[in-house]
Amino acid sequence: MKIKNPKQILSWCFFDFANSSYSAVIAAVVFPVYYVSAIVGNEAGLGDLWWGRAISASMAFVAVTSMFLGGIADYSGRRKKLLLFYTLLCVLSVTSFSLLKKGMIIEGFFLVMLANIGMEGGLVFYNSFLPELAEKEYQGRVSAWGYAIGYAGSILSLLIALPLVKSGHYNETWFMVAVFFAVFSLPAFFFLPPDRKTGQTLLRSAGQGGKYSWKTLKEMCKHKELRKFLLSFLIYEDGVNTVIVFSGIFAATTLGFDAKELIGLYLIVQITALVGAFIMAKPIDLWGPKKIVTLSLLLWSFVAVIAYFIEVKSHFFVLATFAGLGLGTVQAASRAFFSQFIPIEHESEYFGVYSLVGKSSAIAGPIVFGYISSALGSQRPAILAVSVFFIIGLVLVQYVKGGGPNIKMR
User: Fold this and answer.
1) Do residues 174 and 95 touch, judged by C-beta distance below 8 A?
2) What is the phi/psi pair of residue 232, to 5°?
3) Domain 8-193+204-397 has what CATH class?
4) Of all helices (H) and strands (E), which one includes residue 54?
5) Residue 6 burial (10 A CB sphere; 0-12, 13-18, 19+)
6) Which of 50, 59, 111, 168 is deepest in the core (most CB within 10 A)?
7) The overall pTM is greater than 0.85
8) Distance (Å, rounded) from C-alpha 365 to C-alpha 55?
9) For residue 167, how many other CB atoms are within 10 A of its CB?
10) What's the half-sphere exposure (Cβ side, CA atoms, 13 Å) at 142?
11) Which of 244, 231, 246 is nearest to 360 (CA)?
12) Terminal-residue alpha carbon distance, the chain
């Protein structure tokens, strides 16, 4: 059986479509610049510093709790309920952005933390559905489909946000994102596999889940190739996450992009990312995710270095096209690469560890970028520093045995 349940796969992909409104408008393009400039003020890189702190703190929280919650989800069987809780946390926090005024740095810091915890924490449970929805030899392309449809969600949400931002209706923009996320995530809660009835309460599952997760972590640490993969993923994903959360701020502050140009820039990234994800969906399975990760990291290393030298907006638009081609590809291939190591019926706790590593990788990069920008008074050396994460990750992933094709080429 190639596809176990098309309706479930489509609803799973639509959740990526839904949360991509947050990724595009809140995490990457409009809100970062709004918070940095309108709420904090980016004199001497102060806004960069606070934005980096908010993202890093939220990712640290998710990193600490994700593996524990993954164990709870598997032990109690309440995976879908936990996904719903985190989704609601993100939606309500984004809605509350409309309360922020100039100078409310701390309030904005905590709301950004809560929204990002809701978004990123929910992905632990969202990702854990993948091995249940498709046979192993088709998980690479299903993973890529999710990212590709997610980029379509980014494009649509940005097109809706464009007239709102141009007219200065920022509060309405945050409300639009909240509604978009809530409405398009509904199919996932209707059609994804239901929670299992284990007879365990959440309170009791918390203790058992902690023991369960610790045992899983020790077992995973015994797997040499898995350890090597997670180390390389930790480093190169730090670069990916840093580029995502600071690319809009870099374009606005260093190159002088206005809100309309920023949205246009990110639309280019999302369209090329969608194209790249669809083109590379089948090759992830045919060539193997390791080869696709390698090609993507070579591309990202090139992009980060060239960004340091760019002075003209049009050149940055061209560079964004190349960046987009590698964005969805590296994420989809990494998820498929990791899924090759997962034993049956241990999906949530393994993806809890995957999330632990992925979110930990979003701690160092934003802090490094924020402090270099603040200390040197320029974002250029900060963006150049990001290339180091890609290069080191690229070298390390070559030593991982595995990540080969799941099916024969035909």
Assistant:
1) yes
2) -65, -40
3) mainly alpha
4) helix 46-76
5) exposed
6) 59
7) no
8) 10
9) 10
10) 24
11) 231
12) 18
pLDDT in the model for residue 199: 65
Q: Which amino acid is at 108?
A: G
What number of residues does the chain have? 410
Question: Which residues, in sequence order, are CB contacts of 235 under 8 Å at separation 6+?
Answer: 361, 389, 392, 393, 396
Amino acid letter for position 131: P
Q: Which residue's structure tokens are 């993923």? A: 233
Is residue 51 a contact partner of residue 32, using CB atoms and an 8 Å limit?
yes
Instruction: Give 3-state DSSP helix, strand, coil % of the chain, rounded to 5.
Output: 85, 0, 15
User: At what angle are helices 139-166 and 6-21 packed, to 10 degrees?
Assistant: 30
Q: Using CA atoms, how far apart are residues 373 and 368, in angstroms rounded to an integer?
A: 8
Q: Please, are residues 210 and 204 in contact by the beta-carbon 8 Å criterion?
A: no
Tokens of 35: 């918070």
Please tell me the distance from the alpha carbon of residue 311 to that of residue 294, in angstroms, as a whole number: 29
Phi-psi region of 41 (alpha: psi -120 to 50; beta: other; left: phi over 0): left
Token readout for 117 is 């915890």
**C-alpha–C-alpha distance, residues 233 and 246, integer Å:** 20
Confidence of residue 207 (pLDDT cuts 50, 70, 90): low
46-65 pLDDT, tens digit per residue, is 888 888 889 889 988 887 78
